[in-house]
Amino acid sequence: MNEISRRPFAWLVSPQARPLVPLALVLLLGAVLNAHGAFFEWQTQRAVFREIAVEGILACGMTVVIIAGGIDLAVGSVLALSAVVFAWLTLPHGWSGPLAIVVALAVGAAAGALSGALVAFARIQAFIVTLAMMVFARGVAKELSGGQKISNYVQAPDGHFVNVATPPVFAALDGRVLGGQLSVVTLVFAATVLVTWLVLRRLRVGRYLYAVGSSFEAARLSGVPVRATLVFAYLLSGLFAALAGICQAAQETHGDPETGLGYELDAIAMVVLGGTSLAGGRGGVCLTLVGALTLGYLQKVLSLNAYSTELRLMLTGAILILAVLFQRRVNREG
Amino acid sequence: MALLELRRVSKAFGGTLALRAVSFELEPGEVHVLAGENGAGKSTLIRILSGALTDYTGELLLAGSTCRFRGPAAARAAGIATIHQELSLAPALSIADNLLLGVPGPLFGLVDRRAARERAKKALARVGLDLEPERSVESLSLTERQLVEIARALATEVRVLVMDEPTSALPAPDTERLLALVKELAASGIGVVYVSHRMDEIFEVAARVTVLRDGERVLTAAARELGREGLLRAMLGREVTAPAVAAPRAARPARLSVKALACDSRPALRPVSFEVGRGELFGVAGVEGSGASTLLHALFGDGPRLGGEVWLDGEPYRPRNPERALACGVALLAGDRHESVLPSQSVLENATLSSLARFSPGAFVRRDLEERAVRPETARVRLKAASLEAACAELSGGNQQKVALVRCLLTRPRVLLLDDPTRGIDLGARADVHALLRELAEAGTSILFRTSDLSELMQLADRALVLFDGRAAATLERNELSEPRLLALMMGGSS
């Protein structure tokens, strides 16, 4: 530590600043290319914040699970499942928005709790459990929707298809606040970050999550309720995935069983870009926020400047590796 | 000419000398026992022989010519095979595949299945095992694995076989089998370096014994001439004297009564009974594998209890898990540091982990409450840390141990279980820990501590239980405690 602080630009490699470096580089790239000034407009920033919201919510839950020493591959599928449940209850069945939200959240939480119980009690590896849940939840979503998008174009009892009114909850979640300056989903994301931060940094269970991820045996011998803690981690991840699914359904104005494919990988990428170690016991949700912004801005900069999707994917992969290498190099020096 | 010779070999770790100018000779066909207390330098010497340590001073001669191995593979190629305490077989692979791992060959060389099978059969026959070479190693008993490990060592040419406590985890009848094999191998001309803590074993196999103490060679003698008394005296380094008898303290009300407690987690614990009084410092002596750690973990609700009853302050005590044990006022300091501290968490977070409920009324952790409770405790154990925010991994071993101790203390335990609390920590920290334990006992905490260090036991214990091979060898009162007696009991002799 002292070694570092004596060097110039030491703040660049301090643990707090480290994840900010890739973000700063991406912003710098955006400012240089700037697409005829479009990069500097508030509209662009606002779009980034909206675009990262759904996956960012997933990344918050993922952060909690990874800190506890696990991984949750099921979040993309749970997102789709709860999107379908939410749309299915509100559109063909005409449930009220708040009630449908509660049920969809409960479905996500239950899926997460089931994964957690299998990890904690049956002692199956998290990767395998959540891989199975990923496939299973997707199957349930398809079964429930009959493989179709659930939209407001529904079959009436007499067999005819009619357009029903979309409940106001869709418009509300897809809307903007502050005079149209900020998307509601962005606010939901911000609230999720705040809740995750409270859980990790202020609640007792937060300490337990870090302890379990740091050393399961030491935590157990210290009297930490290790199993309950693990179940809680996956439950929270499932709950957040359901929240993301409701936002997704509102934005798409239908429940699509195919939505959220591959989102779990983006969520993991956001966590890792922020610098949370997959080994568990370290990291935090603020880091994940930085990781989400880095990924979001990278996409935005490349699309603004009309780079192809192919190139975007390749660059994203490369930057992910570079960011992790950079952090490890610095860690070793520290 | 000796088969293997060490000339004035020294090795320092940091500032401490683990070996000082140690010389050692091994004749072909000889079983040469290395004896000494923990920390005497035996493992350092073995690591030099096996090529694991390369930066030592002094000379190593194999059949008269000086060697300096660049690594374990080089030592193996020169004909020195080492069998470490932790077996190095790949559990999921078959016996034949494991035996193949010992044979050098090109990375992309083809494996001749039939030849490998034949060779495995032959190697197994040599150690007296009649097993199908296709069986996976994880399906074997501990004894069989130990023998397969030896078979692997014998698969290529061996001149020197180094064995580090090969019987420590074996049941008694299998020990006989292994010792017979060792003698047989020696008779075939192999030189065997044998480390053991068991008295019977030493005198059964050894031709000669070399005793190490504090990194120096005390003596090398023929086992027959040395005798048990002589060995104990050499290991302890002084004449056998009566211990300073502490004034017997007033009779203490019983706090913990253990009746026929048995456990089958490994190493197993056969039914053991004893009582510990309020404010008593109760020593549990036993070498690795004696069941002493199992006993402490069983009292902490960790691991299945086979039978027996435990009473805590007159109430039946049967915790399902460590969480419950802590709730009953029993705290454990685990022997393995990986199990006692969280390396990436801060000093503060480690310290309050076991008593967090007290610092988080209504689920929110109150930092101010934590700091107010932790600061006096860290001062009391003289913790040296940059701050309460410092990650535990940044602290020295002794200070990590102190953090773990603070964690236990903050639970305000009635019974404190300590598994080798001063292992691997420096003298200063050790004295701090000892003073603290006395102070705690004075205040009424009952302390059970396991140690493999006899001088520590002598300094601290009011009474001591000696375990050997999972059984209670003896319970000694303060005035019965003496190092030779303890050592003899720990090594399976009679007192």
Structural account:
The complex is a heterodimer of chains A (334) and B (495). Chain A is mainly α and 334 residues long. Chain A has helices at 2-6, 20-33, 42-51, 53-67, 75-90, 97-120, 126-145, 168-174, 184-201, 204-214, 216-221, 226-252, 263-274, 285-304, 309-333, and strands at residues 153-155, 161-163, 176-177, 182-183. Chain A has a two-stranded antiparallel sheet. Chain A is globular. With 495 residues, chain B is α/β, with parallel strands linked by helices. Chain B folds into 3 domains: 4-236, Rossmann fold (3-Layer(aba) Sandwich), CATH 3.40.50; 254-329 and 413-495, 3-Layer(aba) Sandwich (Rossmann fold); 343-411, no CATH class. Chain B is 35% helix and 25% strand. Chain B has helices spanning 42-49, 72-77, 95-101, 113-126, 142-155, 172-187, 199-205, 223-236, 292-299, 322-327, 337-340, 347-352, 356-359, 367-380, 397-409, 427-442, 454-460, 483-490, and strands at residues 4-13, 16-26, 31-35, 57-62, 65-67, 80-83, 160-164, 191-195, 208-213, 216-222, 254-263, 269-277, 281-285, 305-312, 315-316, 330-333, 415-419, 446-451, 463-468, 471-477. In chain B, helix 3 packs across helix 5. Chain B starts with a strand and ends in a 5-residue tail after the last helix. The chains are: A mainly alpha (334), B alpha/beta (495). At the A-B interface, helix 10 and helix 11 of A face helix 10 and helix 11 of B.
The radius of gyration over CA of chain B amounts to: 25 Å
Which oligomeric state applies? heterodimer
Structural class determined from secondary elements of chain B: alpha/beta
Give the beta-strand count of chain A: 4
Total of helices of chain B: 18
Under CATH, the homologous superfamily of the largest domain in chain B reads P-loop containing nucleotide triphosphate hydrolases
User: What structural class do you assign from the helix and strand content of chain A?
Assistant: mainly alpha
Determine and state the CATH class of the largest domain in chain B: Alpha Beta
Radius of gyration of chain A: 21 Å
Coarse shape of chain B: globular
Q: Roughly how many Å apart are the termini of chain B?
A: 40 Å
> What percent of residues of chain A are in strands?
under 5%
